[in-house]
Every structure is written in C-alpha cells, then in structure tokens.
Amino acid sequence: MNIEMIEAAALRLQGHARRTPLLNAPLLDRIAGRRVFVKAECLQWTGSFKFRGAWSALTAMPPEVRRRGVIAFSSGNHAQGVAWAAALHQVPAVIVMPADAPAVKIANTRAYGAEVVLYDRLTQDRDVIGAALAAERGLTLIKPYDEPLVIAGQGTVGLEIAEQAADAGIVTADVVTCCGGGGLTSGIALALAARAPQMRVRPAEPAGFDDTARSLAAGRIERNAALGGSVCDAIITPQPGQITFPILQRLCGPGLVVSDDEALHAMALAFAHLRIVVEPGGAVALAAALFRADLPDTVICTASGGNVEPAIFRTALERFPG
Amino acid sequence: MNIEMIEAAALRLQGHARRTPLLNAPLLDRIAGRRVFVKAECLQWTGSFKFRGAWSALTAMPPEVRRRGVIAFSSGNHAQGVAWAAALHQVPAVIVMPADAPAVKIANTRAYGAEVVLYDRLTQDRDVIGAALAAERGLTLIKPYDEPLVIAGQGTVGLEIAEQAADAGIVTADVVTCCGGGGLTSGIALALAARAPQMRVRPAEPAGFDDTARSLAAGRIERNAALGGSVCDAIITPQPGQITFPILQRLCGPGLVVSDDEALHAMALAFAHLRIVVEPGGAVALAAALFRADLPDTVICTASGGNVEPAIFRTALERFPG
User: N or C, which end of chain A is more exposed by having fewer CB within 10 Å?
Assistant: First the structure.
C-alpha cells in the first residue's frame, strides 16, 4: 500500500464520490473544550464512506471481470456501498447478509438493486454460501477492509481532510477515526503521512470491542471477546486486518475507547450543533473528540456513517436532549 | 434590488459563510417519482441561511455604526444568525425575543454572545422595547427579510444553486423555497433570473399560513388569519414583505402548500436518505418536492434550517419510521 494507490483511487472517484464537507460549530467547540472538525461521511452516497472503497474496487477491475458481477459479505454499510456502486456500473451484486441484520439495511441494499442472500448466523457458514455463489456465477469478492483497493478508496477521505484542513488553516491536529477492521483508518493514515505529516491518526472504538487499541498497545493482533452487544454495530469486527494492522502500527497513535452512552451523546450533539445524522458506530470518533482528555487543542474526526434505525436515534435524543 | 447587490454580498460572504452542499439520493428520488436536489442550508453556520443575510447586513455597515452594535427581533433563526455574525465582528447584539420562544433557541442565541431581552407577547410591545434600546445605545436594526442587504445575503443561496445545478448537469428545474416573509425566496429568485433563467422559483408554505401563495394568486398582499398553531414556526410571518412581494410577483410561479404532517414526513425522509437534520419550517420545500404533483421531473429545494427541538424530531421519526 502506498500514496500512489490512494491518488489513483481519487482519480477514479472524481465526479462519482461526493466530496463531503468538513464541519464545525462554535457551540460544539465550547462543549469539547477544543476545536473539533467533523468529516461528514454520513453525507456520502449510501450514507457512509464505504461507497468509496466499493467504487475504488469496482473501477479497478477488468471490464470483463466486473461484468460478471461482485459479491460481498456485510450486514450494513459495506453492503449498501457495494450494491449502489454495482448498480451504477449496471453489473450484478450479490450481498450475503445475516437474516438478523437491521431490516432497513436489508431493504436499502435491495432497493439499490442488489440480490440479498440471507443466512442464519447460528446454523450456516457464510463463507460456504458465498464461495458457492461466486464459483457458480463467476462473481468477484469485494472484502470490506483487508483489500488494498478498498483501503485506497477509503484513503481518499484522508486526501480530502488534508486539503480541507489546509484551507481551514489547520496545521497540526489529531485525526480520530471510527475504527472497525481498519480500512478507513489505515487509508487515512497513509494519505496523511504523505500529505499532512504533522497530523497523527488515532483510532476510536467502542468499549469492549477495542481490539485495535489493545493490538496497538500489545504490538500484535488481538481479538475481541464477543462479536455483538454494542449499539455501534457498524464497526464491530473480530480483529484488525492482516493488511491494515501493520499500517496502523506504523502510523497511528494510541487507540481511544468510548462507551455506548458517549457515542449516543455524540449523536445527539451532532444533531443539535452540526445538524447531521450519525449512527452510533459513526459517532465514536466524535465522542472521543468531545469526551477524552488526552487529545490536543485541535481534533479532526470522521463521522463515518449515518445509517441508523429511527428508534435508536430517538433514544439518543431522549437520553441527551440538550 | 438587483443581481449586483447579490454579487456584492457574495464577495462579502466569501470565506465566512459556508458553501452548503446540494444533496440528492437515489432512494429519495424513487419516493418522489422525480429527481430531487436539496440545498442543505441546515449545514450553514447557526443552522440556517439566516446567517447569510445577517453577515451581509453587518459587513455593509460603516464601521463606526457597526461598532455601536445591532438589534433584531426574532424568536429563532434570524436571532442566532445575527448573534453569531455580531460575535464574529466583536460588536454588541441585542435580540428581542418573546419569552415563550423555544428554550433551546434562547439558550443558543445567548451562547453566541448576544444579549437577549425577553418580552411578554400578550402585554408588551416589542417595537416599543426595541426602539427604546436602539435609541439609548445607538443600535442598528437588522430586519429579518424586508431589507435589501438581507435579501442580497439570502440571494447568495441562489448563486450557489445556479453553479451547483450546472455542475450536476441540471438545465431546467423548479426551485422550491421555504417561504416566510420572502427574503430567501426573493433573493434566490433574483439570483436565478440572472444566472439560470430557465429555472422557476416556487415558494412553499404550511397549510393555513399560505399568505404568499394567496397573495401571488390574488395579485396583492394578503395576510394570514393567525400567527401561531403550525409546527413550522420558523416561517410563520403575518404577510409577504413590502420589498419582497413585488419581486416574488414578478419572478415566481404559483405557491405550493403542504400540511404539517407532510413537513414532518419530509424531515423523516431527509433523516433516512440524506442524513441531515431539518426543522419543520425548513422541510416544507422538500415536502412539496416529494408530495405535490404539479412539479417537473427535476426539482431543487431548500432545506433552509435545522434548529429543531429534539422532541419534535423524535415525533417525526416515530410517526414516519420508514
């Protein structure tokens, strides 16, 4: 992985991915006690940065391979990103989703034109289902994070942050990312190492699912004890990726951990002061920027997705009304 | 009023007002049955387009006049826009607000540094209070809409729509605006008449408070029967302005009227598909774009503000969950 791959992805994304705004608000800064800038990827197509990686991967395929279609495993944002990127290319997309994925995410993935294959997480093996479908139809698998072309696509968020921060007169800052498998985080870290080397990337995770923070501290990949039980579903992964982790290890500062309550509180504050809709997993970086002490005067954070069940959003507003 | 005044305001706003994105979403288009583009002024400083007009007025004042400070009457978005624009100029702002204005709007206006003077709408006359304060302290009144410099500031939304629509390949469209006193609508209409004359502006209002639609149909200014009782508080005004109405009459198509329920439904759909927070009065244009039949294949609408009580937003999500 290198900066040239991210620059190449940026060229492929130009005019297709949205250049999302870097937002801030005086009253939010006052709450945080520091300057907080939010890269609003919830405003990206399909409501998360995942569209970038999907588009990057699809546009790098030889046309005759792409034409046969793509397959992805996902319960949420990667599913929607791949589905819409494939629809724009008018090629088939099959998304293998757990039957208990949020109904709205299944419905949206179908609405973007993908074929959704549901499986039972307790009794069925998604890899077996996916391998059979891929072989039968000649589909190409697009992995959610441990794939260089996907990392390159997510890294375009970092290129934009470097440019937008320069426009805002920001020279040094910690850049806090919402971190699952590390695709977004490693992509941003690579981009900033090349374009804004005074900035330091720090991954943020939900408490109890801080595999990346623990792996960085231990110097080796550590796993999460569980794979469910956080409201931050979008960024719960078993462990950092084989490709992403060495990049994180080389380029990132220590991980940050927030509680589910802090993520919900950050959602309510983003609602009130930035007027954007952020999902819990997409709000952990903002929560860290607002509520963690060991950060500098200026923090840039990703609001990486906005696909949230209305009932969860209502709960956030009810619990943190002002 | 002419396009040169809007261009001059745009120069004064450059680097100070946010260039808000023009958003759209494939699944929203499917619901609407047409292409819908949303100018997301809820992402503007202080959460509404009102910052533009306030900044335009403040920056056009002679420095010695501005230094003495400004005064405004408002229960909401104009209050916050003037308060923050004055704070950035480090000049005093006095905002005369009804004591029963939403608590969060009073709190925010104070947080932006303004002095808030509350009055009782039943027993006190705000004009008397304001005139006394203005005379005593030498404050300059910034009217919310019937003021050329304010209209010029709001018109910069129209300049941006013309540019962003051209970038998106849109040639003809109806441009639906959230219309109260007509400052935003007349400003956009003037800008588009000069820069995108194939586009037609149509004001949208809540049912029962459709003074502009009725005035346009009658060919003379008509008043609303009541001044309260709609959830769309931000755009309830007694009647179109003396300056704004002749502009609307010359340049706008017929008005559009939506119910409070349709505005809440539009808020819920903007939440789900655009991931932006829109207040009821800021959602009437989107509601018209989604639910009115007499509009063309392509509609651009303003999401003019996002300062909404959490309880009202929760109600919108509860009633229109998907």
Answer: C
Asked if B83 and B176 sit in the same domain, the reply is: no
Contact yes or no for B27 and A112 at CB 8 A: yes
The 10s digit of each residue's pLDDT in B288-303 is: 999 999 999 999 999 9
Residue type for position A15: G
If asked whether residues B213 and B161 sit together in one domain, one would say yes
Claim to verify: residue A154 and residue A72 sit in the same structural domain: no
Q: Which domain holds residue B98?
A: 51-141
User: Domain count of chain B?
Assistant: 2
One domain, residues B117 and B217: no
Assess whether pLDDT exceeds 80 at residue B322.
Answer: no
Whole-number pLDDT of residue A36: 98
Residue ranges of chain B whose CB lies within 8 Å of a chain A CB? 18, 20-21, 23, 25-27, 30, 42-43, 45, 47, 84, 104, 107-108, 111-112, 268, 271-272, 274-278, 306-307, 310-311, 313-314, 317-318, 321-322
B76: left (phi over 0), alpha (psi -120 to 50) or beta: alpha
Determine whether the interchain pair B276/A271 forms a contact, defined as Cβ–Cβ distance below 8 Å: no
Does the pLDDT value for residue B104 go beyond 90?
no
Chain A hits for B111, Cβ within 8 Å: 27, 30
Among A275, A277, A319, most B C-beta atoms within 10 A, so best to mutate, is A275
A104 and A216 co-located in one domain: no
Q: Report helix, strand or coil for A202.
A: strand
Is the domain of B202 the same as that of B296?
A: yes
* Same domain as B192, residue B64: no
pLDDT band for position B102 (cuts 50, 70, 90): confident
- Compute the distance between CA of residue A22 and CA of residue A16 in angstroms, rounded to an integer: 18
Interface predicted TM-score (ipTM) over 0.95: yes
Q: Phi, psi (5° rounding) for residue A8?
A: -65, -40
Q: Is the pLDDT of residue B35 over 90?
A: yes
Residues A168 and A95 placed together within one structural domain of the fold: no
Instruction: Let me know: does A307 contact B273? Beta carbons within 8 Å.
Output: no
Could you tell me the two tokens for B96?
Answer: 């005369």
Q: Which chain A residues are closer than 8 Å to B311 by Cβ?
A: 317, 321
Closest residue in A to B84 (Cα–Cα): A26
Question: pTM for this structure?
Answer: 0.97
Kindly report, residue by residue over A42-82, the tens digit of the pLDDT: 999 999 999 999 999 999 999 999 999 999 998 789 999 99
